[in-house]
Amino acid sequence: MRRNAPVMLGAIRRMVDLELDGEQVRAPEGSTILDVCRERGIDTPTLCYLDNLTPVNACRVCMVEVDGSRVLVPSCSRRVEDGMVVKTDSERVRHSRKMVLELLASSTDMSLAEDAVHRWMDSYGVDVKRYGPPGPSAAAGERDRRQAGHHHVPDGLSAETVAQPVKIDNELYVRDYARCILCYKCVEACGEDAQNTFAIAVAGRGFDATIATEFDVVLPDSACVYCGNCIGVCPTGALMPKSEYDMRQAGTWDESRQAQVTTVCTFCGVGCNLELTTQDNRIVRVDSPIDHSVTHGHLCIKGRFGYEHVQPR
User: Fold this and answer.
1) CATH class for the region spanning 15-89
2) Which CATH number applies to 164-310?
3) Range 293-307 average pLDDT
4) What's this model's pTM, rounded to 2 decimal places?
5) Which of 75, 127, 234, 297 could covalently link to 290 via disulfide, CB atoms 3.0 to 4.6 Å apart?
6) Per-domain residue ranges for the chain?
7) Are 293 and 52 in contact (CB under 8 A)?
8) Which tops the pLDDT comparison, 151 or 263?
């Protein structure tokens, strides 16, 4: 760089002062409360939030208490303000988070949820049986799923969610809506935040709401391009590569024998990073680092599913 050349700087943001759990902190203007919590090492639960997606405020487990606000506010989207007083671990906050997690865990199969979800459930003392035994049709659906080899269905599921059959209509991934918590992550990843395919959306209302293709057609007849970005953002295992699903059904999926390695996709010159999960010298799943400057966690069909040619025969 030539001498005295202008140096490009990022936008300068003023700092705001706020009180967080009794401590005075400073944060850049425009930051969310969740940003500040993470910067301070405060473990704030999130289910519908992801750094590479637009916050949709759907799960309501990141709620915090703000002085002057009548209701709890979502930390993932609420911007910090000068003089704001925030409580992230008050009795009111803990009660709200526990109730949301209990409602989700009592109506859906959370057994394959991310490790952080189980940590939060333990931390907030979640009782999945609090809302009573399952109804007749839910119990029948749960029994059928167990007989079909679904060994991870917890006892006490009380809603119709678990009565849904697994949707297997293609060779790349399956949709198990018994595990779906309607976090909207897959919808966002399929839409403007990543793929711009808009193959899926939320259909129905209330307990009848579900993620569906247009007119609920099978996936091969929809606009889906099989990028699998919905799989990469799903926090509960409702969307899963068919290779992983088949191994779990066969009882051969063993995380203790798995390793992860990062490499660069060779299908084109974009330079997408791949996180390969391997077991017994075979690739069993492909993801992408969410903090990678090229992919931001997203891939195309070739990067996510086009690895069979490197497998040992």
Assistant:
1) alpha beta
2) 3.30.70.20
3) 91
4) 0.82
5) 297
6) 15-89, 164-310
7) no
8) 263
